[in-house]
Amino acid sequence: MENLNQATVRIHSFETGGTVDGPGIRFVVFTQGCPLRCQYCHNPDTWDVKGGREVNGKDVVAEILKYKSFMQFSHGGVTFSGGEPLLQKKALLPVFKALKKEHIHIALDTAGTTNIDEDTLALLDETDMVLLDVKHLYPTEHQKLTGLSNKHTFDFLDVLRQKNIRTWVRWVVVPNINDTQAYADEFADKIKQYPNVELVEILPYHQSGVFKWKELGIPYALTDTPEPSKELIKELSIILENKGIKTLYAR
Ligand code: SF4
């Protein structure tokens, strides 16, 4: 294993005071690099694995610890998001270990796009909770929406169940792609198979990141896709709740 001084993490940005990336108030580390190309991505500037800046593991930890009392007071912690943090699982392991020694709560915001190997398992041993993006239940639709099949996501969810890791599943509702009541029904049946999933966070698709696509000169496929209504989000949530799944969504 790399030690903390040798570890280099490629970072897009740090954000303090996050309230939407796990419980309490969070320090959010946006890691650089993502193997997916989600059609609705808000952060296409995190895709390039050579972008961002390299930060020594020790400095990542030091930056986070500046906010230790604040995080602990609010029962929050740090969330590693992206991009896809699992692309840098080797470098993140000593960072996670150092944070655990300081009793910092660690959440991993991921689509699970990685192989299940020793590095993945070791990182999960240091992870308190996972925010897992389930972008589509069907492999072919997932491929259309993100560029890759959902095999990794569900293999990862299987491991989270085996390790009984507290998990919040995130479902971004995209009109005409994954927004029907029948889909919600199937979604609920699938998620019910995972007792480690504490809740499903239902997030309406929105276009607030489109300006970044324009800046990067990348064509945006969902220009004509409307944002789902609050009523629809509530209806989908009721379907999940009726099957015994707790939901979280903006009311
Ligand atoms: S996984 Fe996240 S960062 Fe990567 S393309 Fe999808 S939405 Fe964007």
Report on this structure.
There is one protein chain. By secondary structure, the chain is α/β, with parallel strands linked by helices. It has one domain (8-248): TIM Barrel. It has nine helices and nine strands. The chain has helices spanning 57-65, 68-73, 89-101, 118-125, 139-146, 151-162, 181-191, 210-216, 230-242, and strands at 8-18, 26-31, 53-56, 77-81, 106-110, 129-133, 166-173, 197-204, 247-248. Strands 3-1-2-4-5-6-7-8-9 form a nine-stranded mixed β-sheet. α1 (57-65) packs parallel to α3 (89-101), α3 (89-101) runs parallel beside α4 (118-125) and α7 crosses α9. The mean pLDDT is 96. The structure holds iron/sulfur cluster (SF4). Iron/sulfur cluster binds at residues 34, 36-38, 41, 43, 46, 82-84, 111.
* The CATH fourth-level homologous superfamily: Aldolase class I
Bound molecules: iron/sulfur cluster
CATH topology: TIM Barrel
The largest pleated sheet is described as: 9 strands, mixed
